[in-house]
Design goal:
Layout (H helix, E strand, L loop, with lengths): L15 E2 L11 E3 L2 E4 L7 E6 L10 E11 H4 L3 E7 L2 E9 L2 E5 L4 E4 L4 E6 L3 E7 L5 E10 L10 E5 L4 E3 L2 E7 L1 E2 L2 E2 L9 E7 L4 E5 L5 E8 L2 E3 L2 E3 L4 E4 L5 E6 L5 E8 L7 E3 L2 E3 L2 H12 L36
Antiparallel strand pairs: 1-19, 2-23, 3-4, 4-5, 5-12, 6-11, 7-10, 7-12, 8-9, 8-11, 10-13, 14-15, 15-18, 16-17, 18-25, 19-24, 20-23, 20-25, 21-22, 21-24, 26-27
């Protein structure tokens, strides 16, 4: 999915163990979402928790949109025309519905619940996303991963993976990136990452053994979930800094809770984000925009989409500054 609101967002593994809540993290930062209308003729509104002024990245995760559940008969669903990306990987994960994906690599695939689609747009790629006629309720997350400097011009790539659910007492986990709960994802990334969907039964609590070198983010889809010592409500993202080997999650709801757990080692590079591009300087963004506007071979052509590609918005009348995270305590 594109960040088609065209705002400048240059604002800045282990196993599962049952147990009691532990004092592994003394403080959780709560990131509240903001509503963002995506552009295009059939706009939809998403809840965005990354990036924001207080935090640009969690590991290499630099973008988190949470949308739905939307009744497509009322909202019109998703229809995102071909648009470009540079310097990132897109991670698509659905809870319900189906999205048709086409890209300039020639990939034609579907995003379905519980199945990962990961697209690499290093030097340049373009793609379209359209909810299918089989979709009644559209609900999921769209995530971006920043590529490190040495790989940010990587070739186009597309990977699909359907992880098996890992059932534990009171919990079910699908590990789509990295390692958790004794399960390893085979999906290739350019920095160490963790990505997993976690479902907790009513009033269930589990303690996850995690990589202590990772910082973690927990995006709550539904339910009231306590992350260590902090209660998170639906659409909120809890952040835990690196340094702990366990995270405790507790569902304090009378209904099943669902969340997405993200992680990775702190990303030490500053990045520039604008529209659908990630670079290291204002000039990187200007060049990418010009290449898209001029129909450069850099982004290729998406075949099979019935309609025009998305035009690039006007650049802000200011230098887009690079941003990183605040200094670690």
């Amino acid at each position: 999915m594109s960040s088609l609101d065209a705002e400048s967002v240059a604002e800045r593994c282990g196993s599962l163990v049952d147990g009691q809540r532990s004092p592994e993290v003394s403080q959780i930062e709560v990131l509240s979402p903001r509503d963002v209308p995506l552009g295009g003729p059939r706009a939809m509104t998403v809840r965005r928790t990354l990036p924001q002024r207080s935090r640009t990245l969690i590991g290499a995760w630099c973008f988190a949109d949470h949308y739905g559940p939307d009744d497509v008969a009322e909202t019109g669903g998703m229809d995102v025309a071909p648009h470009p990306h540079t310097g990132l990987q897109t991670v698509s994960w659905l809870f319900s519905g189906e999205i048709e994906h086409r890209d300039s690599l020639g990939s034609h695939a579907f995003v379905r619940p519980g199945e990962l689609n990961l697209m690499t747009g290093g030097y340049g790629i373009s793609h379209s996303e359209v909810s299918t006629s089989r979709t009644t309720i559209l609900h999921g997350v769209q995530l971006w991963v920043a590529l490190p400097e040495e790989h940010r011009h990587a070739e186009r790539d597309f990977q699909h993976y359907a992880p098996e659910p890992v059932g534990m007492r009171g919990a079910e986990i699908r590990v789509f990136l990295g390692s958790l709960a004794g399960h390893d994802s085979p999906v290739r990334t350019f920095t160490p990452l963790l990505g997993a969907e976690v479902i907790l039964e009513p009033h269930a609590a589990v303690t996850l053994a995690v990589n202590p070198g990772f910082e973690h983010g927990l995006l709550v889809d539904h339910g009231d979930v306590r992350m260590t010592d902090t209660l998170l409500h639906p659409a909120e993202l809890g952040y835990a800094q690196a340094g702990t080997g366990t995270l405790t999650l507790a569902n304090e709801s009378d209904k099943t809770a669902r969340m997405v757990l993200l992680g990775g080692p702190p990303f030490e590079e500053e990045i520039v984000m604008w529209w659908n591009f990630i670079g290291r300087s204002h000039e990187d963004i200007v060049r990418a925009r010009e290449d898209w506007a001029n129909s450069s071979d850099r982004f290729g052509v998406v075949e099979g989409y019935s309609g025009d590609r998305l035009p690039a918005p006007v650049l802000p009348n200011a230098i887009i500054a690079a941003r990183g995270n605040p200094p670690r305590r």
